[in-house]
């Protein structure tokens, strides 16, 4: 039986939410900024996008393109509320609703569409309910197909507020709606770009180009062994299936998709930073936040990764045998990487940092880990517990490590969609 999969994606989510809350912002180019420093635009409104403003970008760069750009600080709590309302609507039509990101869901309607008058009726009802229950300025793009790959591709082909070339559309086409049926695949593949597909980013595209694959149709006919020799086994098979429009992945209900595989944080500094102590303090702060999150999730990590972006980029990871969950330990590994990269010796320009990402992986439930009888970190973990209690009660960063003492307030904010899975889990648990 052919499956019936929907992919629903909010258009310009953060910015549309702001325009929904404040009608004076509607029909204007808006840039939503990270709340700290306001120098990075993390989301652009559809009006701003039409003028060529991409996100993320720096505010000053966006203003060069559009001097009348209005910037608005992000209100993540409000976006959460909207995502919750959205999920609440979707789950009325199927138990198989997967939260793919803060503003995207997959719904498998295969077993339930008949209960609600068929798939088109469901789409229409969901759109109407979003309009009535969330707001008239919030719009969505809907893709319908027989697997997740094509449903997501479809929703990206017809944004309701930007008309795609008519030739790109096949099957049932409406405002913000594209359906891809098996007989449409050939035509869609002949018109789409490689980067229209979820799973092909710029880097993968460049590597595909290198082996002579410039279009989805060429990917379709590419021999598997050629793909494997460039991309290794797993990714090679994935790309081959993508070329064949095959995708057997299930829609995983949101209440099951809570497993946390990594916890991380990214931060865009308010200005180009040359001061090494400040850079390290910011890294420390991100590590502390990750530590807090790991402990709240009752997880410990064995791998720590650090990314620094500025005039040059640096990235690396460290994996150790012990599992850790304290900001201090996570920072220790970051500092090792930082030292290995020799940043302390670099001249100002080379050592400039603008973006910082820290992440942890190889997570394990703390309760599964055996405690050492002679746990040297025991005293540290007792202090940590007391600090966590205080911070839980009075807010994060009420009590902070001495290393960040006397530093300007470094309170970080997420600056991307679902910067990590912690938010997703928090959201899911709120149901
Ligand atoms: Mg979206």
SSE class: alpha+beta
- How is the CATH topology of the domain at 263-430 named? Dna Ligase, domain 1
The CATH superfamily name of the domain at 263-430 is: DNA polymerase, Y-family, little finger domain
Total beta-strand segments: 15
Which percent band covers the strand fraction? 15-25%
Which distinct ligands sit in these coordinates? magnesium ion
CATH first level of the domain at 263-430? Alpha Beta
Radius of gyration, whole Å: 23 Å
The best one-word shape is: globular
Provide an overview of this structure.
- This protein is α+β, with helices and mostly antiparallel strands and 431 residues long.
- Among the domains are: 13-75, MutS, DNA mismatch repair protein, domain I (3-Layer(aba) Sandwich), CATH 3.40.1170; 186-243, DNA polymerase, domain 1; 263-430, DNA polymerase, Y-family, little finger domain (Dna Ligase, domain 1, 2-Layer Sandwich).
- The chain is built from 15 helices and 15 strands.
- The chain has helices spanning 13-21, 46-50, 59-65, 76-90, 119-134, 148-157, 185-191, 202-210, 216-221, 224-243, 276-297, 327-340, 348-351, 378-394, 421-429, and strands spanning 5-10, 30-33, 40-44, 57-58, 70-73, 97-101, 104-108, 140-145, 173-174, 177-179, 263-273, 299-310, 313-324, 353-361, 364-365.
- Strands 6-7-1-8-10-9 form a 6-stranded mixed β-sheet. Strands 11, 12, 13, 14 and 15 form a 5-stranded antiparallel β-sheet that branches.
- Mean pLDDT is 83; it is low at 161-173 and 411-422.
């Amino acid at each position: 039986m052919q499956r019936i999969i929907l992919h629903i994606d909010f258009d310009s989510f953060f910015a549309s939410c702001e325009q929904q809350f404040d009608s004076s912002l509607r029909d204007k180019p808006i840039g939503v900024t990270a709340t700290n420093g306001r120098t990075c635009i993390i989301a652009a409104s559809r009006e701003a996008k039409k003028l060529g403003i991409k996100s993320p970008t720096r505010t000053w760069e966006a203003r060069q393109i559009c001097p009348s750009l209005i910037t608005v600080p992000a209100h993540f709590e409000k976006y959460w509320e909207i995502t919750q309302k959205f999920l609440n609507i979707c789950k009325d039509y199927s138990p198989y609703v997967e939260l793919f990101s803060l503003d995207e869901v997959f719904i498998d309607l295969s077993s339930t569409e008949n209960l609600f008058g068929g798939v088109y009726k469901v789409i229409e009802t969901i759109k109407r309910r979003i309009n009535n229950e969330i707001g008239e300025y919030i719009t969505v793009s809907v893709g319908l197909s027989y697997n997740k790959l094509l449903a997501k591709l479809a929703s990206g082909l017809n944004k309701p507020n930007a008309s795609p070339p008519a030739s790109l559309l096949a099957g049932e086409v409406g405002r913000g709606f594209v359906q891809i049926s098996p007989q449409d695949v050939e035509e869609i593949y002949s018109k789409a770009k490689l980067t229209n597909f979820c799973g092909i980013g710029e880097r993968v595209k460049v590597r595909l180009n290198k082996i002579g694959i410039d279009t989805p149709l060429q990917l379709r006919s590419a021999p598997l062994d050629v793909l494997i020799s460039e991309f290794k086994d797993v990714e090679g098979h994935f790309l081959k299936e993508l070329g064949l429009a095959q995708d057997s992945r299930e829609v995983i209900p949101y209440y099951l998709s809570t497993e946390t595989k990594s916890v991380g944080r990214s931060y865009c500094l308010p200005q180009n930073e040359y001061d090494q102590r400040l850079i390290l303090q910011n890294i420390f702060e991100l590590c502390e936040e990750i530590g807090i999150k790991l402990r709240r999730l009752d997880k410990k990590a064995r791998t720590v990764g650090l990314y620094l972006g500025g005039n040059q980029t640096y990235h690396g990871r460290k994996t150790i045998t012990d599992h850790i969950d304290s900001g201090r330990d996570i920072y220790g590994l970051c500092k090792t990487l930082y030292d290995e990269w020799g940043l302390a010796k670099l001249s100002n320009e080379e050592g400039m940092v603008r973006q910082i990402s820290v992440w942890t992986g190889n997570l394990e439930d703390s309760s599964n880990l055996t405690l050492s009888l002679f746990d040297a970190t025991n005293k540290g973990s007792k202090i940590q517990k007391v600090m966590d209690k205080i911070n839980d009660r009075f807010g994060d960063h009420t009590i902070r490590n001495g290393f960040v003492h006397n530093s300007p307030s470094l309170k970080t904010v997420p600056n991307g969609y679902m910067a990590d899975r912690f938010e997703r889990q928090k959201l899911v648990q709120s149901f």
